[in-house]
Amino acid sequence: VHVVDAQTGATLRRLTKGHELLCRDACFLRSNDVVSCSDDKSIVAWDSVTGQPVKRIKDAHEDVVKSICEVDGLVASCGYDGLAKLWDLRTGGSAVRQFNHRGQCEVIKQCGSSLFATAGGNDICVWDTSNDRAPVHRFRDAHARSVGALCVDADEDRLVTAGLDGLVKVHSLRDHTTVARAAARYAHECLCVAVAPENRVLVVGTARGLLDVRAREEKKHKDRKKTLQPPGGTFRHFNRGQGFAPGSSIKNLVVVGSNKTEHKRLAPHDEALRKFRYGDALDEALRTRDPIIVVSVLDELERRGGRRNALQRRDEKRLEPVLAFVAAHVAHPRYAESLTGVAAQLADLYGDALGAHPALDELFAKISQNIASEASSQKALLGLSGAVGVLLAENDARSLRLERAREEVAPVDDE
Fold first, then answer.
1. How many CB atoms lie within 10 A of CB 29?
2. Which residues contact 154 (CB under 8 A, 6 or more apart)?
3. Residue 68 near residue 108, CB atoms below 8 Å
4. Which residue, 94, 100, 176, 319, is most buried by CB atoms nearer than 10 A?
5. What is this structure's pTM?
6. Which whole number is the average pLDDT over 370-388?
7. What is the 3-state secondary structure of 233-247?
C-alpha cells in the first residue's frame, strides 16, 4: 500500500509486510490511519506515521475481500462471499454486524452518516448500520452488466454508479430513483468514478486507461436589483420615490444606437467591377479557376458593354490564361453560347498577331479545333433529330390510318 502526495505525486509511505497476496482496496480513517483489504481474506490497519501494521484481522471473509471503507466510525468491508461486515478495530477481531448482499459483493461505499451502499452483479443495496436484516432499498438491474464503482456527491444526496456496460448513472438516496445517466456510453468498461466536492466535476476511469473529466457549466444568475428597476417612460419609473438619487440613473443609462449591419467583403473580381476596372476583374475571375465565376464576369462585362475593353491591349502573359480558358470550355454546352462570342472577339483583336507567339498560336488552333468538333457534333445531332422526326411523323400517320379503319369497320358490325 502506498501513501502518495496528491499534489506532487511523491510516495510518502510504503506500507509493506501486511498482506500476503494482492491488495484490493485501501482508505483513510478519521484518525488519518490507513486500512486495507486483500485477496488473502485479511484486513490490516496501518499507522500512517510509522508505516507499521497496527491490527490485522485474518479470515475476515470466507473469500477475497474486495472493498473497504469507513462508516459511522466503524470499518465496513465486503467480499466475494456475498457479505458486508462492520468491524470495530478498537475491540476484538469479530464483526459487529454482517449484511447479506445475495451474491458476490464488489464495492462498498459510505453514503450517509449511518448509511452505506454495496454493489455486486447488477444490483445495488443501500443499508442502514442499525438494521442488518433487509436493505433500505435495492436497485435491481441498475446496470446491464456488473457495477464497477460507487461514489456519493458532496451533499450525500446522490449515489453515482459506474458499470462494466460503459454507463454512468445517478440515483437519488431520498426517493431511490434513477435521476440521470451519462449522455453517451463509454467505449470500454468503467472501473472507477468520483465527484468533486463542489459537485461540478465528474471523473470516470475506464479499463483501457482513459480518464474522462467533465465539468458542469455554472448558470449566471441575473442581478435581481437590476431586473426590478422600472424601465424609463413608465409610471413606476416616474414614481420612483424620494430616496432615489438623480445621478445614479445616469450610470445605468444605455443609449441604443442604430446597429449598422456589417457588409460582407466583396470578392476581388466584384470589387474590380465596382470600380470599373474591367481588365483586372477578368484577371481576378481567372485566378479563381471557377468556370461559373469566369463566365458570369464575361456576361456581366458584355451587359455593360466593356467586354472588348477587358480583352484588348493584353500582352502574352495576360492573354494566355484567357485563351486557355476559352479553349478548355468553349465546347461545353453550358458555356458555349457565351464563349463563342469571346472567341470571335479574341480572333478579331489578335488575329494580326498570329505567328508571333507559338504558345498563343497553339491555343488559337485548339479553340478552332474544339469549335469545329462541336459544330460537327451539332450537325450530326441535327441530322439524327431530323431522321427521328420523320420516323415519329410516319408513326403518327400510321396510327391515324388505323383509327380511321376501325371507325369504318365498326358500323358494319353493328348492322
1. 17
2. 195, 196, 197, 198, 199
3. yes
4. 319
5. 0.51
6. 87
7. CCHHHHCCCCCCCCC
CA triplet 257, 261, 264: central angle to 5 degrees?
160
CA distance 273 to 303: 12
pLDDT, position 126: 94
C-alpha cell, 120: 455486486
Q: Please, are residues 106 and 119 in contact by the beta-carbon 8 Å criterion?
A: yes
- Kindly report the number of other CB atoms within 10 A of residue 18's CB atom: 21
Q: Is the pLDDT of residue 265 over 60?
A: yes
What is the C-alpha separation between 158 and 156, in angstroms, rounded? 6
Kindly report the backbone phi and psi dihedral angles of residue 248, in degrees, each rounded to the nearest multiple of 5, phi listed first.
-70, -30
Q: Render pLDDT for 55-70 as a digit per residue (tens, 0 to 9).
A: 989 889 999 999 999 9
Strand 95-100 with 107-110, pairing:
unpaired
Query: Which helix (DSSP H) or strand (DSSP E) does residue 279 occupy?
Result: helix 278-287
Among candidate residues 31, 27, 21, 19, the one with its CA nearest the CA of residue 3: 27
Going 312 to 314 to 316 to 321, the CA torsion angle's sign is negative
SS3 197: coil
- What letter does residue 14 receive in the DSSP assignment? E
Nearest Cα residue to 193 out of 210, 172, 177: 210
With 80 as the cut, is the pLDDT of residue 73 above it?
Answer: yes
| Rg of the chain on CA atoms, in Å | 44
- In the chain, % of residues over pLDDT 90: 40
Rounded Cα distance between 54 and 32, Å, is 13
Using the predicted structure, report yes or no on whether residue 250 has a pLDDT greater than 50.
no
Q: Quote the CA–CA distance of 269 and 286 in Å, as a whole number.
A: 9
Which pLDDT tens digit goes with each residue over 97-152? 999 998 899 999 998 888 999 999 999 999 999 888 899 999 998 998 999 999 99
Q: How far out from the chain centre does Cα 72 lie?
A: 43
- CA-based nearest residue to 36, from 83, 3, 80: 3
Residues in the chain: 415
**Residue owning grid cell 474544339:** 370
DSSP string, 301-341: HHHHT-HHHHHSS--HHHHHHHHHHHHHHTT-TTTHHHHHH
**What is residue 77's predicted lDDT score, i.e. its pLDDT?**
94
